[in-house]
Write a structure and sequence with these properties.
Shape: elongated
Number of helices: 5
Helix content: over 70%
Order of helices and strands: HHHHH
Number of strands: 0
Strand content: under 5%
Structural class: mainly alpha
Largest sheet: none
Distance between the termini: 43 Å
Radius of gyration: 19 Å
């Protein structure tokens, strides 16, 4: 079973999501029709868990890059908060230490 660190090196966000979705679909189908669908093995279940961590990490990297780009383009923390579905304060607290660069 590969760790999230190993899987992160092997997958892009797209390939990690595709593999996760394939495993999730098989798991859902097996739960609905166990007589005709093969359940995931323990290793596949753990792979799906590790892939979920990879997806979270890679999406987070993209989010950070987009916040940085929005700030560089002049977007206010209010507008960034709105785009993230949160408040200005929450957006600022989560991202300002690296989005605005050194003081």
């Amino acid at each position: 079973m590969a760790s999230p660190d190993e899987l992160e090196r092997r997958h892009t966000l797209t390939t990690a999501t595709d593999r996760y979705d394939a495993l999730r679909m098989r798991d859902a189908l097996a739960a609905m029709d166990p007589a005709n669908e093969t359940a995931l093995s323990p290793d596949e279940t753990l792979e799906m868990l590790a892939l979920s961590e990879v997806i979270i990490r890679k999406a987070g990297y993209g989010r950070q890059a987009m916040v940085r780009s929005a700030r560089a383009a002049g977007a206010s923390w209010t507008r960034i908060g709105t785009a993230l579905g949160t408040s200005k304060q929450a957006a600022w607290e989560s991202h300002q230490r690296w989005a605005d660069g050194p003081d």
